[in-house]
Amino acid sequence: MSYKLREVLMNQNDPIANLGTDRLQSFSDGVIAIIITIMVLELKAPNEPSLRGLLAVAPVFFSYVLSFVLLILMWVAHHYLLHPIRLVDRPLLWANSNLLFWMSLILFATAYLGQNPVEPFAVALYSVVLACVIGSFALLRQVVFRQLVHNQDLARHHAAIQLQNLIATAEYLLAVPLAYVSLYLSYAIFVMIPLFYIMPGYWRTKRH
To answer: Is the CB of residue 110 less than 8 Å from the CB of residue 39?
Structure first.
């Protein structure tokens, strides 16, 4: 069965498939914007107007920066991921909702880490949430891949990025036990993974 015929049959059998991606993208953009807005509202100016006062809130600011960079990367990737999609079906809706659920938990994990930056449990919890976020995005990419499998160039492109997603998920999971061995190693993973996605080689791959 050709992709075009399969697309027509999906449209006939599933009314949701007749919806465009505009609503899905707008809703997702709105949720991500709300997450970032609430997260920045958690930043409180120190009571003491001095360098010592700023250093006291540095862990909260650092956790915010880590989460903000990751959220922006996810938002950009989400935009490019859904751009070529023609059909909005139930698996896509549920996979996208699952991703937004885990992204919303970044709010709690970020605040908890900022308040307990040297507690292994707080670092481990932050690692688990981020692993679930990246893993959920990998699941969404797999659902999207079903509609693009007919295009070999896009299929290879998605397979390469999917491998990066799985590696990042494994690294975040690795940061969980490392939090009880060395907090520095876990924090190094938190910093390196966003850089892993921002590398020039990654953007060259995305342009192709």
So the answer is: yes
Handedness of CA 37, 59, 103, 29 (dihedral sign): positive
Q: What is the rounded distance in angstroms from the CA atom of residue 98 to the CA atom of residue 92?
A: 10
Residue 157: which of 77, 95, 96, 87 has the closest Cα?
77
Q: How far apart are CA 34 and CA 32, in angstroms?
A: 5
Q: Which residue has the tokens 């922006």?
A: 72
Q: What is the pTM of this model?
A: 0.82
Among residues 88, 83, 90, 94, which one has the least CA distance to residue 18?
88
Strand boundaries in 24-79, DSSP class E = none
Distances (CA, A) of 64 to 56, 88, 99: 14, 33, 20
d(CA 27, CA 35): 12
Phi and psi torsions of 20, nearest 5°: -80, 180
- pLDDT of 145 strictly over 90: no
Rounded distance, CA 193 to CA 96, Å? Answer: 22
Kindly provide the b/e burial profile for residues 22-54, where b requires at least 16 CB atoms within 10 angstroms of the residue's own CB.
eebbeebeebbeebbeebeeeeeeeeeeeeeee
**Residue 3: strand, helix, or coil:** helix
25 phi/psi in degrees, rounded to 5: -70, -40
Instruction: Single out the residue of 201, 23, 176 nearest to residue 109, CA to CA.
Output: 176
Residue range 96-118: mean pLDDT, rounded: 94
Residue found by looking up tokens 């990367």 in the block: 73
Instruction: Report the pLDDT value the prediction gives residue 160, as an integer from 0 to 100.
Output: 80
